Amino acid sequence: MMPQPQPATSQPQSVAIVGPQYCVPQVLDLAIVRKVMSLTDGSFVVTDAADNILFKVKGHVFSIHDRRVLVDAAGNPLMTLTEKIMSAHDRWQAFRGDSTDPKDLIFTVKRSAMIQLKTKLHVFLSTNTTNGHVCDFRIEGSWSERSCAIYAGESNSIVAQMHKKHSVQSVLLGKDKFMVTVYPNVDYAFIAAIIVILDGINKDDHGGD
């Protein structure tokens, strides 16, 4: 059973990670459509409630490691998401634009433990000075049920929450569609990137739900 969101007043004035232009003062519902059978693995489209395209994801299947690029509606690269090779905890890194230079690192995502029955990931911003001891955000829940929540640090304050949208049409078209509610003043480009990384970590259904 998913925890109830805490009041939005518990949130900071703004959680701008990719950019302040992606923080809005009201609740934002994102629709995420993933093509289930696609040669371009990780093919996502992210829209708002009115079906306006906000982001797309371009994936690279035939490479040594998973690499996905989050682009805006005009096709401009916002973030490059890469899987770190030979990482025991399924570590992913997010870089600004189409860069993979360490100086452009925005955040890192990794499993809290190697073996998990449920999804539990920790997010560390590049500005984190705790040497990986205290996370800035964490993700908990069930990826297979599309019911994960994203929390601020180790608190019970939810910044975004996933929920499955069942649709016969989506199933017939070979698409996986679910919704993500982003709470006020939280960077929705950052949340979209987290969802893409969640998919990457769980694409082989290993070590977690």
UniProtKB/TrEMBL annotation:
Q: Under what name is this protein listed? A: Protein LURP-one-related 15-like
Q: Which organism is it from?
A: Rhodamnia argentea
Provide the organism lineage as a comma list: Eukaryota, Viridiplantae, Streptophyta, Embryophyta, Tracheophyta
- Extract the Pfam families matched here: LOR (PF04525)
Which gene produces this protein? Answer: LOC115746866
InterPro entries, from UniProt?
A: LOR, LOR_sf, Tubby-like_C
Q: Which family does it belong to?
A: Belongs to the LOR family.
